[in-house]
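Data card: per-record layout.
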Amino acid sequence: MPLDQRSAFSSLDPLLNPRSVAIIGASDEPLRIGGRPISYMLKQSFAGPILPVNPKRETVQGLKAYPSVAALPETPDVAIVAVPGAHALQAIDELGARGCRAAIVFTAGFAEVDEQGAEAQDQLVAAARRHGMRMLGPNCLGVFNADIGFYPIFSSSFENGWPLKGRIGIASQSGAYGTHLFSASRDRGIGTPLLVTTGNEAEVALGDVLGWMAGHDGIDVIMAYAEGIRESERFIAALDLARRNRKPVVMMKVGRSALGSEAAKSHTASIAGDDAVTDAVLREFGVYRARTTEELIDVAYAAQKRIFPVKNTLGIVTVSGGAGVLVSDAAEAANLPMPPMPVEAQEKLKALIPFCNPRNPVDCTAQIFNDMSMVGKFAGSMVEDGGYSSVLAFFTQVGASPSVAPALRRELTAVMAKHPDRLWVLSVLAPTERIREYEADGFLNFEDPARAVVAIEAMGHFGRAFAAAEAGAAPVKLPAVALPATTPSEAEAKALLAEAGIPAVPEKACKTAEEAVAAAKAMGFPVVGKILSPDILHKSEIGGVLLDLTDEAAVRAAFDTLMERGRTRAPGARLEGVLIAKQIKGAVEMAFGVLRDPVFGPVAMVGLGGIFIEVLKDVAFRRCPFDAPTAEAMIRSLKGFPLLDGARGKPKADLASLAQALSNLSAFAAAAGEKLASVDINPVMVLPQGQGCFAADAVIELAGSGH
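The structure for this 707-residue chain is written out next.
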């Protein structure tokens, strides 16, 4: 790995891979908070000095104790702070003065409690930073790095077993849930030698931990649990590093709260909520977002094989037609392709077992158990003739039978040895020792084949993400953007956006009915009339939009009606006149938006336009800026994309111009800076191929504008 990538997170080395450790508040009782870490490290043979600090004892758990940090015989790499809240700040200061480079603060009662606690936490952070010390916590359950016997943690979960050898790391904002993941993985025979829980994240945040794991040679796969992302720079850098290093990140992100009442004025923000934005960031960097604990562990378990097919296809060999149907349903739900076997291969398999179903799923029936060589022939054909990147073999409890399992293993292992680049997955019901034999051969195993399908599809998800990172994306050129001092009117907003490459429907701002008539005649009927005011953001709510104005009389009447509605239904609003716009027919209505997320900055949105955006919420989000191919992928991801792609015999819409306009909007938002609060462009009228797209309505909100 390039040195500059690794060095970004190397300040956590003394925290997670130390040579020595001190325990401030060390206890002689091995079951107390200040005693468990010492007991664990003694039992697991931590190689470096363990230095208890306890002014009331000469020894702690058989180790020499020291009355103070100053009295320690050497400076520890890391220290555990397990003292009451009033003494934690003193401990951090003394450790920093001694030259200790990292601290793990168990002590609670800080920002998680009240404002006074938050102030005390700020003092802890200031002290740590003053000394150049990294601090995990406070209110932190702790860490373990089993590879070096390092256990600065007070969880009781090790009473049921120690971490198994493996290459999966766990990063969790919740201490209890982090140890739950470790324990559940251990009980499934999955090795997770590294766990870091982040507590209050006052100084070291989840992004720091993910980044360290992404650069750590002992970790291949990262499991993560998050309740909310507090900072973006390190988090994004960590996900980028993991993707570049081809290390899958499987995350459970909980919490689906809205951005808040102030953001509700923006349709884009109210539709998004902070969870949708975080979800977009995770997808951007190829993180797999698990919905359940079971799925989280399943995907991490499969990722240990480090086989990530970019073009993932699934072949099924089964002894049960019913299981084949179940798996086919699961594959369709997961969008995992299951192409049929080639006709020639089907004929070959029919010749071997005439009553088999050779299509895919390939049902070889129980006949194979009369001649176990058939297992190898069928499995081999699926890879060699079918070309599947992933093969799922369903043998249910038969795969556990002492009369069957040895021959079954030999046949399958021989085929796998010829094709080690394929993902080989079994669905076998068997005692633990038999499952371990199959896993030792190199097979993954899932009792439920539907769960296997989800994990297999996730490997393709990672493959595509890693390939995209290797291909890279062209840098997006940002325009020069000069926002006005106050909230722009619709006409001003569209002029700004047009300069940035988001063309508007032909229109003209008119102060009198005569000007409105002249504008309508110049652009051709029919036209649309809209009230023009920087204070009326959502005109349709007050009847401020009139369609199908087909002649001069209709335009005059519309002008008077709109001005009257503005005066009576929005008293106090500044009225600048009426906007006359060309009414476009035969277009697909889409919507663009931008919101400024408090963590990740400007985020662009695309969805179906008109009223459908808020009813259906069929939208896609992406951090700004991004290029046109990325914009097109966002548009294609919408459930409503067929409306643009010529559904029901209609002409295909101008997807290229729509994608370019969306990319241009993302560049505008990135260039505009923090003064830009949000953008809503709804509808965007998309004409047939080659005819372009046009913004029919636009609202730009500025930060602090009060709108």
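Known properties of this structure: The two ends are 48 Å apart (CA to CA). Confidence is low (pLDDT under 50) at residues 259-272.

See the next section for split statistics.
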